[in-house]
Write a structure and sequence with these properties.
This protein is an alpha+beta fold and 85 residues long. It is built from 1 helix and 5 strands; from the N terminus they run E-E-E-E-E-H. Strands 1-2-3-4-5 form a 5-stranded antiparallel sheet, covered by helices on one side. It is globular, with a radius of gyration of 13 Å. The model has no long low-confidence stretch (mean pLDDT 86).
């Protein structure tokens, strides 16, 4: 399973996430990620905001409307997941 490293903008703390699924909505790439490869755990939706030197930069989706819309798409793409957004 592919991994991405997320860097918290304020603290600069790095967290590795496993990419469960990805999709594009209106030309924007979104990733559905988890902290653990298997089992029940928290999941997050990351949004690609730009690319720098062929590396993508992501931020957490925090807007409730955007989160609900993209969450519905991921709920359809990931059949066995119980996604609450």
């Amino acid at each position: 399973m592919e991994k991405v490293v997320f860097i918290e903008p304020e603290s600069k703390e790095k967290t590795e996430f496993f990419v469960v699924e990805e999709t594009k909505v209106n030309g924007t790439r979104y990733l559905f990620v988890t902290e653990e490869e298997d089992g029940d755990c928290d999941a997050y939706i990351l949004k690609e905001v730009c690319t720098e030197d062929e590396e993508s930069v992501y931020e957490m989706v925090e807007d409730d409307t955007e989160l609900a819309a993209v969450g519905k798409i991921f709920a359809e793409l990931i059949e066995d997941a119980d996604i609450a957004y």
